[in-house]
Structure prediction request, 553 residues.
Amino acid sequence: MRQEADDPGGTLIGDLIAAVRRRAIWLGLWILFCLIAGLGYVAVAQPEYVASAQIALEPRVRLPPGTDAAAAASAAAPVLDSAQTESQLQVIRSARNLRYVFDTLKLDSDSAYADKGPGLVGRTLGKILGLFSPPSSRPSDDELASRAREIAFQNFSDRVQVRRLGQSYVLEVSFRGLTPANTTRITNSIAAAYIRDQVFVHAASDQRGIEFLQGRISLIQAEKKAAEEAVATGVITDFQFPDSDARIVGSALPPLAAAFPQTKLILLFSGILGLVTGIASIAVLHNFDRKVRSPAQIRRLLGVDCLVSVPRWKAGRLTDTTALTQPETEFALAMRLLRTVIFAAGIKSQQVSIGFVGCQEGDGCTILSANLAHLLAAFGSRVALIDANLGRPDLTRRLAPRAGTGLDTIMQSPSPATDLPEVAITPSLSFVPAVAGLATGHKADPNAFLGSPAIRTGLSHLVRQRDVILDMASLESSPDAQAIGHMLTGVVLVATLNRTKLDQLSEAIRALRSANTRVLGIVLNDPARSRKDSRLVNATASRGMPTSPEPAN
Prediction:
């Protein structure tokens, strides 16, 4: 039906929304594929676990030996600022601290951190680049072992994360490993290594002091030993470290579930990725799609009014009189609207002649012209229906297959005729066949021309007597519409939804207007004829037999 404000194709956004609706099944399948791909990744990805330990920074007051109790009690504890806290964060992540853990736990022999080598793309690029680079000597075994050790240490360091918890003096050390037990052990070892480093720093300071006491040596040695054992075992004990400016307030516990891959997040990302990429692909395809998709698209891009949009016919097969015999259908309503639009104010002031022409064969001109002619004739108008499609005379095959005279014989007549041959269909409707003797296998001459003087004379005489509806050959198969179009009140272009291209319509409008033909508008036809129906009609026609009523297209 004809639409204006309700047509979603009235804007570029509307066109895109309509394109998404047309490809909704494709888009849904693409999103489903992305979700399945996400699930496949979750299934094959190596699970990883994250464990965390918390370290509280607590700077202690350091007084020289011999200080009395009153002075010790009155001494104020040092205060850390944000810069000092950030510095301790970097100390934990320092290469010295992490390398001690790496060496103590002998992680260089752990396959989880070993060099995996370049992937397929890397190997391919390496071979290509190797063709253009000068040959180099092979590194020694020691160099290869050293490089493998450094790569393993780098892979280990990349799994360590240290952050400050808010504005507090608590630092959280996290490690991402492949097993819960190994992850917990390494996390605690990193935290213990930092405590060990703090003890070593203060031990060295005390050893440089003149007041160094033997009693403190034993305490510091005990602290060193406890810290080293914690690094080696990955177990944090209740041992106190008075010579450290930090203490572990929360040791790492074995994680209960894998932190990676995150199934919900990956599925959410896969769904969003599928939706975004699917819509983007549809937008790109729509940008290059030149097929007619909506009436508003025709109005916006071609500047020509879409007179009516004929809906898809689903109830059986269309006939030449469906608009009369089934008046409650959407097709009949569309045909009545087409009648109203064509014979609007200013047009029906005299006898009118309307030609139906498509850009290509199969656009549905025949069924539309026949139904409009029957609809006009049923309500008092004297109407002549002309089959002006000499190459494909479907109306003649159905209505007058045994006619003795047709347009082809008039064109061959040596003297100009004043009247076209008519066959009475109803008291108010007559039919002018295209080809005479169609039932006997006669065909029109391929060189026949509707613009001949005889046809012009007969058509001019006929249009003065009654309303005339012409079923004309498509523009791709014949120029007849351009030859006689200027003699008619106007021509209605018929386009097929989702098949006819905008470029075809634009060229058809230009060609008709260049021949001084008035283009009344475009009818957008949504055909429903199946290939089986089409083969049936063609097979019957080839035997020269009357066919059943024509399908929708």
